[in-house]
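Issue 218. Parser rejects a valid record. Input:
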Amino acid sequence: TRPQSTRARERTSTAGMPVDARVREGYFFGRACACAPPTSWWRDDAERAARDAADARRRAPALLNTFTKTKVPFKPLSGNSVGWYICGPTVYDSAHVGHARNYVNFDVLRRVMMEYFGYDVRFVMNVTDIDDKIIMRAHTRRAEAVVKAARETGETRLGAETLAVEKLLAEGGKPLGALDSATRTLANAVKAAIGSGIDAEHCCAKDWTIQDGYLTLAHQFEAEFMEDMKSLGVARPDMLTRVSEYVDKVILYIQVIINKGFAYESNGSVYFDVKAFEAAENHKYGKLNQNAMENITEAMDGEGALEAEKSEKKCDFDFVLWKMSKDGEPCWSSPWGMGRPGWHIECSAMCSDILGQSVDINGGGIDLNFPHHENQLAQSEAHYDTEQWVNFFIHTGHLHIDGLKMSKSLKNFITIRAALKMYSARQIRFLFLLNQWCDPMELTPVAAPDGSGVIGFKQMDLALSIERLFVEFFHSIKGVFRTSGSYHVDKQQTWNERERELSDTLDTSQAAVHEALIDNINTPNTLLALQDLVKATNKYLAETGGVDVRPLLLERVGKFVTKILNCLGVCLDTGAVGFPESSEGSSEGREETLSPFLDLMTKFRDDIRKLAQGGASAKELLTACDNLRDVGLPELGVKLDDKEGGALWKLYDADELKKEIAREHEAKEEKERAKRAAKEEAARKAAEKEARAKVPPSEMFKTFSEYEGLYSKYDDDGVPTHDAAGEALAKSAAKKLLKSRQQQEKAHETYLAKAGMEKLAV
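Output the parser choked on:
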């Protein structure tokens, strides 16, 4: 039961009574409450009763657990501490918007669990920097650079070596050993052709090996990924693990699994024995996916693009823990020979090293559910010989582009950096918050009119309108504080009916937000609850004119909205009401901060003085003022709204304000284009109508295109009597045609009258 309805009924039934009547009726002062009664501490069992009541009321957030496919109340394994591991990026290319959704979603979940529910979270993320895709990309980039260098020398004698590398690239770069050898031969030839004058930084000047080359590529894209996450406002993990720094521990981890009988060596590689694991009494394979043993195609997806062609496994569903390295691949020494870690094992070893043999939450995108997370779970439980390693597995939903999962392999991706050129990080986050984190999300690109690329997303319109709602809400509250102050000793503070209604709405919103967050951290419903509160506050400000307000109540409302948006990662300045004024923060000195504003105001003053001294008209002075409002101030991130009693200034991030103004201009132009098109269409229809009206009724059935070829005979008035086949028309058909002729007769008479009047006027 929501308290708002109780209090509203109380006030409705008594507010109109005279004071003495309310006294007689036993008027209730203060707020009614549907909450539990206070504890009777004087009773003997009071303390136990209080504990029981508190336990009943304190509900844990229910999270969608992939183990059960249901929402399960979350409880940490140890006190208030939460060990949380998520699978990070495989760093072989730029991150796209699908990655952005995944990591923004986990950022939201993490923030809510920490800042709203108060858990002490240790958040660990890995970076996969040893992987088949990285190795292949490193070789490909190296080969392409050397081919380009060979072409630039202009040496025709390098043609055969160049063609050999280009042929291998055209065939997909495999086998890597052959590509590596051919590229090395060409690089040496280029170096010899250039001679001693070769620049030290030239791609052919130094020996290149995949043992270093893969890591150079991985470091480049890891740095880019982390910068993208910073731009999106995603908090950094508490611990970042890289497989390249864990190879020794991975080897030890694998050896323990072998010692316990759940893995075996074959031809220099090590494989996990799924059947042996499944046969053990305390183990179960397929906890996340009941059909895990039925889809060999998906199971093989985790083995990588460079897996051996011939199977070395006991069973098709066995998966690799350690890969024997082939020519052209990086390698490390191990008890089984030179090789490198498999994909799944890295997460087990790194997560175990930081979080141990019991993990509260493990997560990633839904595409990692099988085989990666299934195999990660199995090998970790085999290592510890335990029934359950992870308590909650949570997976975020796919991002679809026109119905297909966004991925690099499908070549339907839009990079994070490209998206950030179209929208701000806050707008992108609002877009994701409008969709439940565990559900699929559809994104529809909007193409530029000239076909030059993508200029936006259709679904962003709603996100922009919601951001605008909150932006204007915060500006309105701040505007009241600037004009009226947040507190004055000589200002009325007692609540009237409007304040009580707003307070009730705040209580309702707080309850609704709590219910939404406790229900699988439901961000769409959280935003709906906040929107209701914002609309109620806007109504309150409109009714009071922003003057006769209770600023302490407004401050409480503003801080609550700010707090929840902060938990969602939208506001990052909890000490104040509203959004931060700049996404960049502010560390500049006072002079550097104020200089652009002072320069603008100085120039404005000079311009006004010149106009006034030159006898400028009021219109010219107002034009200069409008220019300051529409051009000068927006360049600095300031927007002026003209209002009764004076303009209201609002601070924005300058770049975002420019984008907003550009969108407003585009919307205005689109409206004008639509207006012109409608006018042209109306003119066309009017001209068509007039052209038809010119035709005499006797000629209409022989002239109008809709009657062409339908009739063969006509009466003296030009009305059809027989159809095209010579058959006489039915009476009903003839009646309709006669009616059409009468309408044409009226239109033609109107036309003749109008033409006659125009002739007389001339």
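Fixed in the parser; the record now loads. The radius of gyration is 37 Å.
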